[in-house]
From TrEMBL:
<dbReference type="GO" id="GO:0016301">
    <property type="term" value="F:kinase activity"/>
</dbReference>
<dbReference type="InterPro" id="IPR000600">
    <property type="entry name" value="ROK"/>
</dbReference>
<dbReference type="InterPro" id="IPR043129">
    <property type="entry name" value="ATPase_NBD"/>
</dbReference>
<protein>
    <submittedName>
        <fullName>Glucokinase</fullName>
    </submittedName>
</protein>
<comment type="similarity">
    <text>Belongs to the ROK (NagC/XylR) family.</text>
</comment>
<keyword id="KW-0418">Kinase</keyword>
<dbReference type="Pfam" id="PF00480">
    <property type="entry name" value="ROK"/>
</dbReference>
<keyword id="KW-0808">Transferase</keyword>
Length: 317
């Protein structure tokens, strides 16, 4: 068993947790704004939380961090994070300095979420799975033969939201053609919900009259559950590019499970059923019969859990 402090560093907040013997013994959330001295400030907050909870920061087995962006976990470096404004940032070196601990584990946030769901949420069953996180963008990761996939070329896979030619309606900000992110992300879904709401004469239009452009997915969750035709139409269209990339993964790798995480996944089984309905258009019958799409089971601490579990595995605790 291990004692550790881990950080899931996202675009707007850092979700942090102290672990001891596979249990969360303290946790806190820290805003990522302002960006200046961000890790230093998280470190100061961590020491205050540790003191209040009688946790010895100098007796931790390791420190872990998951970062939104493209991460070289072997070097412990963030190659690029648009949301954080980091490029070639030596996060492992900084974490070692700030926390005075030589054992630092660094992962991309989507890989951390994948390993967290598989190891903690699914208890390491099955041996193969792919996870998609639907948020500001679309991230993801995979487990093959009980191992987190890093690839044999760049070591950077975690960007299923980009490339592939899965849609030709909206140009992605990354510059590539056909990315699923502009349509299947939570941001894309909300943009289409607002566009639909502006012309809707039904409940969605009425909701927009109250909330305006500040309307989010959580604000129309009840309409989704009630199968409002305008809302369902938006989601069905938005899920099509995601269904297409899932079909490629299923046909090529035959993974046992697809896990859907991120804010929209809180809509539960009706969302998964809608996604599976779209997948029926793109997955061969023999594969479709055994297509298993499930909701992520861990919530806000999935990334923190993922880094903790990965750190234990890699550092042999």
């Amino acid at each position: 068993m291990a004692k550790a402090f881990t950080i899931d560093l996202g675009a707007t907040s850092a979700k942090c947790a102290f672990f001891d013997n596979d249990k969360v013994i303290a946790k806190f959330t820290f805003s990522t704004n302002p960006r200046e001295n961000l890790l230093e400030n998280i470190g100061k907050e961590a020491r205050e939380v540790a003191e209040k909870n009688n946790i010895d920061m100098d007796n931790l087995d390791f420190i872990g961090i998951a970062v939104c962006g493209i991460v070289d976990n072997a070097e412990g470096k963030v190659i690029y994070s648009t949301n954080l404004g980091w490029r070639d940032y030596p996060v492992k070196e900084e974490m070692t300095r700030i926390f005075k601990n030589e054992k630092v584990v660094v992962l991309n946030d989507a890989k951390a979420a994948t390993f967290g769901e598989w190891s903690k949420g699914l208890k390491k069953v099955p041996d193969s799975m792919a996870l998609f996180t639907i948020g500001t963008g679309v991230g993801g990761g995979a487990i093959f033969n009980g191992r987190l996939v890093f690839g044999d070329n760049t070591g950077l896979p975690s960007e299923p939201g980009h490339g592939g030619g899965f849609q030709d309606e909206i140009q992605c900000g990354c510059g590539l053609k056909g990315c699923i992110e502009p349509i299947s992300s939570a941001s894309g879904i909300e943009r289409e919900l607002i566009a639909k709401a502006k012309v809707s004469t039904g409940p969605l239009g009425e909701r927009y009259q109250k909330l305006g452009d500040n309307m989010h997915i959580k604000d129309i969750a009840d309409l989704f559950q009630e199968k409002d035709k305008d809302v369902i139409a938006v989601f069905y269209k938005a899920l099509e590019p995601l269904a297409k990339i899932i079909s490629v993964i299923i046909h090529f790798f035959d993974v046992s499970m697809i896990v859907i995480g991120g804010g929209p996944s809180n809509l539960g089984k009706p969302l998964l059923d809608l996604l599976k309905k779209q997948a029926a258009n793109y997955v061969l019958p023999d594969f479709y019969e055994r297509l298993n799409i499930v909701q992520a089971s861990l919530s806000d601490l999935v990334g923190a859990w993922g880094v903790y579990e990965y750190g234990k595995a890699e550092l042999k605790f």
